[in-house]
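Let us work through a complete example step by step.
Step 1: write down the sequence.
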Amino acid sequence: MKILVVEDEVKTGDYLKQGLAEAGFVVDLARNGVDGLHLALIEAYDLAILDVMLPGIDGWQVLQGIRKAGKDMPALFLTARDQIEDRVKGLELGADDYLVKPFAFAELLARVRTLLRRGSRSKEPELMRIADLELDLLRRRVTRGNCRIDLTAKEFLLLELLLRHQGEVLPRSLIASQIWDMNFDSDTNVIEVAVRRLRAKMDDDFEPKLIHTVRGMGYVLEDAPGR
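Step 2: predict the structure and record it as tokens.
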């Protein structure tokens, strides 16, 4: 799942991005309101976390722009503004939750997961499947047959990306940008290593094989025993 964080405090923004990434989410970070609104309008996010006091345009205006564009992604205000009227304003503008700084990351993460759970009921199933493989988006669990498969955060994101594009050949450049937030470098083998490790966990001891290499192009996830 993909989260947009709009936060101008450098330490707080970096802390949020690292913590959410370690929890298994893909995170984009904007340092001002203008960039935040731009990303919200051109990308597809499952959740937005917004500060109120931002350079450019404030968090209120960012959320107004998001809602005016017809986007109904859940939004959480994370701000030092703790007055009742601020909370009321945020909720009236269309926010789904409001958390005051300073905050405990564990509480933020719990609220994030609750909002994603609510959103997923109308947008997408909580479980993703192919053959006998099942990925639970909310519990961050993967099973194949009756076996639990333990994945790292990056491996989980890689599998989720492949599942969302079943049957599509994903080029290495796309995987690099979506999972590692970097431009693809042909000299690096980070993607090959990650795919190899994921295969070892979810394919080596099972049939049919699900992750396939398309030489010169990339990787595809599909239930195609004869490929």
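Step 3: interpret the result. The first strand starts at residue 2 and ends at 6.
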